[in-house]
């Protein structure tokens, strides 16, 4: 069973989510005996030979001057051409902004089923079974595929990348047919968020604030704790709807579903929509003055108290710890 | 300008999920059904485009069982002109089958813009929009949180990891909408009255073979019970200790 993995690059950098996908591809290929092949649309080689250590036997470079920025139509063509060449049993994508956009297009063109944002893959009786959270994590669905290739996108930060796999990582050119017509959609530019902020879905640590903060100006103490922890700031729906924080910060059912190593919920009571979006975090800390808040039911560690006293003290303690480590 | 808005009826986000007896689907007992929140942004934006141009038609389309008519009626009350109900009493488990059924109905309309929510908050698949783009041979931009139309060109913005992409797209196009694009309106009393006279055309969804099958639906394993490690500032040192020594995070 060979596995084709879409390799995502941005500004000539291979993204870590693609290494996670290669890691899972390697595990699948080991179970079934087959090769792991990457396909990377790019303007020029972003250093694909290095992916041998991440598990790739071969990497197909689909080079085109337009492929520096994401080009939905061109990337779709490249991945479909790679699928025709490699004839894989499984095609893996990261469920990143790019992967979420691309994978359904590829699925529709190949006429094959796609399971998105999966958190586990198994092979049962020679058939791939995908596990995926639905209802923002309130339930877990297992789906089976009819026909091959099976298309899967993988939730970031769930699958481990491998290092030192020692596979060949041979880079081959994949000629991309240019159908003449430029894509109807063209990325004009990418506006970077302030200070290279890590996206919530890819963060190891998240510190989220809720209505307990009482006003947008008080998010400063959340930001300071986040900075000390090396974390990304998240928010509850209530504060996003109140306009205190941008929509991209929202964690929960109409925001982002996250699974960080550590999730710190500050002044968040724990509405069901919020709990759905973060309860797959590895460790949850809740800080709230109401000991009966539902957030304490999912928290591993709770601290009952006034967040305006507790959070600065916690920030100070983390800073001291950081200073010791240096 | 003809705009099509694909909408879905979903369980309210307040729903506590219970699994049906077949072990594969949501138990519908006691569930409140709503218009998928991301689809509200899609419909709102289509209405704004029509209002700005002062002309055109907004057609809402939905695939599902008899109950879907209520959601379509609600969309008509918000301001859509007419509705297509693709009747499927047992909707397929895969987005590809849904997208194909929708594409078959939308193609004859020759829409200039096809709108979908970024994803439906039940299956969270986020597939139908981009699949429609492919099937209708239109460009598609997903998870759009900013939209400006200049003639036959739309300039849209979408959040990506660590930033925002500004994308220029030529009509006809498929756009899927994210939270932050707009503030959806509520249906007015006048709108609700007018909706009663607007047509809902019902026909069977053209469903082919599904490409996926659901094996099981289950509740996630419960988290092992946690504990309160302290009260107020005095609890901070203990919190630091457990995060280091038990959770081994810090």
Automatic annotation (TrEMBL), chain A:
FAD binds at residues 211, 236-237, 250-254, 267-274, 288. The keyword Cytoplasm does not apply. The keyword Ribosomal protein does not apply. It comes from the Bacteria. Transmembrane segments: none annotated. One of its GO terms (biological process) is fatty acid beta-oxidation using acyl-CoA dehydrogenase. One of its GO terms (molecular function) is flavin adenine dinucleotide binding. Binds 1 FAD per dimer. Its cofactor is FAD. Residues 3-187 form the Electron transfer flavoprotein alpha/beta-subunit N-terminal domain. Keywords: Electron transport, FAD, Flavoprotein, Transport. Pfam families: ETF, ETF_alpha. Belongs to the ETF alpha-subunit/FixB family. This is Electron transfer flavoprotein subunit alpha/FixB family protein. It comes from Eiseniibacteriota bacterium.
From TrEMBL, chain B:
GO terms for molecular function: electron transfer activity. Keywords: Electron transport, Transport. Residues 23-210 form the Electron transfer flavoprotein alpha/beta-subunit N-terminal domain. It comes from the Bacteria. SMART domains: ETF (SM00893). Pfam families: ETF. Belongs to the ETF beta-subunit/FixA family. This is Electron transfer flavoprotein subunit beta. It comes from Eiseniibacteriota bacterium.
């Amino acid at each position: 069973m060979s596995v084709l993995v879409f390799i995502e690059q941005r500004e000539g950098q291979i993204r870590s989510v693609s290494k996670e996908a290669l890691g899972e591809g390697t595990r699948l290929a080991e179970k079934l005996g087959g090769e792991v092949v990457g396909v990377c649309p790019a303007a020029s080689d972003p250093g694909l030979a290095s992916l041998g250590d991440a598990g790739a036997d071969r990497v197909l470079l689909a080079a085109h001057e337009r492929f520096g920025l994401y080009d939905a139509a061109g990337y779709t063509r490249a991945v479909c051409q790679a699928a025709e060449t490699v004839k894989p049993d499984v095609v893996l994508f990261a469920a990143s902004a790019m992967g979420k956009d691309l994978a359904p297009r590829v699925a529709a063109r190949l006429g094959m089923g796609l399971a998105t944002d999966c958190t586990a893959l198994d092979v049962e009786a020679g058939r791939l079974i995908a596990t995926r959270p639905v209802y923002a994590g309130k339930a877990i669905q297992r789906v089976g595929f009819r026909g091959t290739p099976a298309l899967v996108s993988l939730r970031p930060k769930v699958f481990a990348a491998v290092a030192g796999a020692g596979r060949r990582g041979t880079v081959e050119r994949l000629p991309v047919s240019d159908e003449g017509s430029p894509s109807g959609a063209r990325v004009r530019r990418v506006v970077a968020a302030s200070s290279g902020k890590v996206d919530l879905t890819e963060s190891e640590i998240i510190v989220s604030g809720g209505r307990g903060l009482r006003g947008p100006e008080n998010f400063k103490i959340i930001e300071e704790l986040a900075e000390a922890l090396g974390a990304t700031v998240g928010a509850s729906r209530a504060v996003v709807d109140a306009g205190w924080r941008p929509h991209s910060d929202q964690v929960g059912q109409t925001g982002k579903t996250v699974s960080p190593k550590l999730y710190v919920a500050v002044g968040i009571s724990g509405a069901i929509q919020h709990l759905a979006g973060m309860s797959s975090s590895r460790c949850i800390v809740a800080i709230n003055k109401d000991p009966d808040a539902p957030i304490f039911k999912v928290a591993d560690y709770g601290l009952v108290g006034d967040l305006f006293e507790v959070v600065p003290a916690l920030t100070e303690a983390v800073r001291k710890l950081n200073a010791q480590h240096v | 300008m003809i705009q099509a808005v694909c909408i879905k009826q979903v369980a309210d986000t307040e729903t506590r999920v219970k699994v049906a007896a077949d072990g594969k689907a949501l138990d519908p007992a006691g569930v409140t059904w709503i218009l998928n929140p991301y689809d509200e942004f899609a419909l709102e934006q289509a209405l704004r485009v029509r209002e700005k141009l002062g002309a055109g038609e907004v057609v809402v389309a939905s695939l599902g069982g008899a109950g879907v008519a209520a959601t379509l009626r609600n969309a008509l009350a918000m301001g859509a002109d007419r509705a297509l109900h693709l009747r499927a009493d047992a909707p397929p488990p895969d987005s590809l089958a849904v997208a194909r059924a929708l594409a078959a109905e939308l193609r004859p309309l020759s829409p200039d813009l096809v709108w979908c929510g970024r994803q439906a908050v039940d299956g969270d698949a986020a597939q139908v929009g981009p699949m429609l783009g492919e099937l209708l041979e239109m460009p598609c931009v997903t998870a759009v949180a900013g939209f400006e139309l200049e003639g036959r060109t739309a300039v849209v913005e979408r959040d990506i990891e660590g930033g925002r992409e500004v994308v220029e797209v030529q009509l006809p196009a498929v756009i899927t909408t994210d939270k932050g694009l707009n503030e959806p309106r509520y249906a007015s009393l006048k709108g609700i009255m007018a909706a009663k006279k607007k047509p809902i055309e019902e026909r069977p969804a053209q469903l082919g073979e599904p490409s996926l099958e659901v094996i099981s639906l289950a509740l996630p394993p419960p988290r092992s019970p946690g504990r309160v490690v302290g009260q107020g500032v005095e609890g901070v040192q203990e919190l630091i200790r457990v995060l280091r020594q038990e959770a081994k995070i810090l």
